[in-house]
Amino acid sequence: MLSELDEVVKVIFRKYKPALSYIGVDFGREDVQQALLEGYDGIEGAFQAVIEYWYLLQRQQRLLEYPSACLITAITEQWQPLNWQEEYLDNPKFKTACELWWEKAAQVWGEQARNQLVADVTERDDGYEYILFRCGKTLPLTTAQVWGWERVLEFSGQ
To answer: pLDDT digit string (tens) for 49-68?
Structure first.
């Protein structure tokens, strides 16, 4: 699905996807994908408005029911945020699995060792998450999570 998006929309999508996923938007749904493909005008405002709305509901101790439907409505009706704050995206709950693994690797191996071993932990357009080691090897993130830290360290060549 991501490969079908305009390059500008891809950049915007990647920025907000972790937050929207945490909120409960299911990007695997066909109707969500269709809305993304058809509604690229004002899409960043729609993403921000949904996240802002989620924060409002959190402060009121209420849940955002039907988050995927909410996003579809926001895109089709071109919602705009009322008081967007870039800090909203700094919520630790909005971190991707790649970011969490990268941070945990620094805790387990030490930041210097991690930086010597790992070039990047990233996600392709098709959703495939993987670790790129400086030696050139790659490892699916799901495999690394199953293997554990010692086996991943051995795999990396250390």
So the answer is: 999 999 999 999 999 999 99
Q: How far apart (Å, rounded) are the C-alpha atoms in residues 2 and 18?
A: 14
DSSP string for 57-125: HHHTT---SSHHHHHHHHHHTT---SS--GGGGG-GGG--HHHHHHHHHHHHH-HHHHHHHEEEEEE-T
Token representation of residue 71: 């996003």
CA 70, chain centre distance (Å): 18
Residue 157: partners with Cβ closer than 8 Å, 6 or more residues away: 133, 135, 137
DSSP state of 136: S
pLDDT in tens, 9-24: 888 998 999 999 999 9
What is the spatial order of strands in the sheet that 138-140 belongs to? 118-123, 129-133, 138-140
18 φ, ψ (degrees, to nearest 5): -60, -45
Tell me the whole-structure pTM to 2 decimals.
0.76
